[in-house]
Design goal:
Blueprint lengths: L5 H9 L10 E5 L4 H12 L3 E3 L2 E6 L2 E10 L4 E3 L1 H6 L4 H22 L12 E5 L7 H12 L4 E8 L2 H7 L5 E6 L19 H12 L1 H4 L10 E9 L2 E9 L6 E5 L9 H12 L3 E5 L4 H4 L2 H4 L2 H16 L9 E6 L1 H10 L6 E7 L17 E6 L3 H13 L4 E6 L11 H16 L9
Helix pairs in contact: 1-2, 1-9, 2-7, 9-15, 12-13
């Protein structure tokens, strides 16, 4: 499941790290490519963002093989096994170390004017890079974080070969990886946009993170952007969510996740990222509280889920600058039934609906009242769900289309299939999220 860019990778990886939220957590990005990924994680966890400046000390005759690593404040890690096996003298090690310290000093001078080093003593350090190939730099970073006093080290990366993940378990208390593709050829092949990250971008992200509370803007009519954690009020029930509205957004899509999922669904976050690229906003939120989820009956209570979705839509339209912005629904699994039932409500004003691997049949008699243009996306290998979607589509009175994605299963986990979902959903919403949503009422 390739990533759109490093920011998309960070948002998806953040969904796997929610258990690390806490006041003693520090997120450390490896300059330079790891910093955009770390920025999204730090923001999701409400944790401070810092860089971890390390340099691998490679063998003189084989620089890719680390005989040690160095970090700020004179931190020095020696891999004794490599040094002894290769008969490296103190003088040889010192000469390589001196060269690497010069580059380390240069980067420290550039970055530390923006972000003084965050103390790690007694903290949980989440070390982040944009991907791992051999793992030597990530290994050095974990060792340096430990040497700086971190009580716990978590290594988090969007992708890595399984062999590297297994090997790095010896230097990190936990390794979190979103994707472990095989065969693994190069990190860049798993990103649509893998442009080199420059020092200026690293500095800008550090500065933005340092002033995050002041920069979490509300979306306004003047076209400013917003990307912030929110509490969606569904009547008296507070539900956590993430609202992202690009500047001058032409519409906002509210996501209804399926059973067993949440606002942190990696697949929904992937689709949302594709919408952001073309100027569409998104609201991802939890349809149920943790206590409600414990009762499985609630997970399949379509009436309850639809009411939460309608309440979230009302809340969204009350936000500054969004009163007149067209709203669409993107549903997955049981969330599709909730989206269709909510869209069928009198005066819902929903401009368009997209279903991914959904159970629209669970919307029941509400299907006949849906007027919003609806796109059904079904995997070619998902035979039973395909039948249910065909039957549900026949009951709609408004415009609809069903697209079968060849080779895709129910979760669209097969290579390239989720990208097709994102592309088709993007085009559908661009077509129907217009300035005046009254036509869909």
């Amino acid at each position: 499941m390739p990533f759109l860019d490093r920011a998309d990778a960070g948002r998806r990886l953040a969904g796997l790290l929610t258990g690390e939220r806490g006041e003693d957590t520090v997120v450390l990005g490896l300059p330079r490519g790891g910093v955009p990924v770390a920025y999204e994680i730090a923001r999701a966890l409400s944790a401070p963002l810092d860089v971890i400046l390390v340099r691998k000390v490679g063998l003189p005759a084989q620089p890719e093989l680390a005989m040690g690593a160095i970090g700020e404040d004179g931190v020095r890690v020696v891999n004794d096994d490599v040094v002894d096996a290769e008969h490296v003298s103190d003088q040889q090690f010192g000469r390589v170390e001196e060269l690497e310290r010069a580059e380390l000093s240069r980067r420290a001078d550039r970055y530390r004017t923006v972000r003084p080093r965050v103390p790690l003593a007694g903290k949980t350090a989440i070390v982040v890079d944009d991907g791992i190939a051999t793992g030597s730099t990530a290994r050095a970073a974990c060792q340096v974080a430990r040497a700086h006093g971190a009580a716990r080290v978590v290594l988090a990366v969007p992708l890595a070969p399984q062999a590297s993940i297994d090997a790095l378990a010896s230097v990190a208390d936990e390794v979190i990886c979103a994707e472990a593709p095989e065969p693994f050829l190069a990190i860049g092949q798993w990103y649509r946009d893998f442009e080199q990250t420059g020092d200026d971008e690293v500095v800008a992200l550090l500065r933005r993170a340092a002033s995050a509370p002041a920069e979490e803007m509300r979306p306004g009519a003047n076209g400013t952007a917003a990307d912030r954690d929110v509490i969606v009020l569904a009547g008296p029930v507070p539900l956590p969510g993430r609202l992202t509205v690009p500047g001058g957004a032409r519409g906002v899509v509210v996501f209804a996740h399926g059973s067993g999922s949440s606002r942190n669904s990696p697949r929904n976050m992937f689709v949302a990222g594709a919408l952001h690229v073309v100027g569409l906003g998104s609201l991802l939120f939890d349809l149920l509280t943790p206590e409600e989820e414990a009762d499985r009956a609630n997970v399949f209570d379509i009436g309850l889920l639809a009411s939460r979705l309608s309440a979230a839509t009302t809340w969204l339209r009350e936000q500054p600058g969004l009163q007149q912005v067209p709203v669409g629904y993107f549903g997955a699994s049981t969330g599709v039934a909730a989206a269709l039932r909510a869209a069928a409500g009198p005066g819902s004003g929903i401009a368009a609906v997209v279903s991914r691997g959904g159970r629209p049949d669970l919307a029941g008699t509400a299907l006949a009242a849906v007027r919003a243009p609806t796109l059904f996306l079904v995997g070619g290998l998902d035979d039973r769900v395909l039948e249910l979607n065909e039957s549900a589509r026949a009951q709609l009175r408004g415009e609809s289309q069903l697209v079968v994605i060849p080779g895709a299963g129910h979760l669209f986990a097969e290579p390239g299939t989720l990208e097709q979902v994102a592309s088709l959903a993007r085009d559908w919403f661009l077509r129907y999220l217009r300035a005046d949503p009254s036509a869909a009422r």
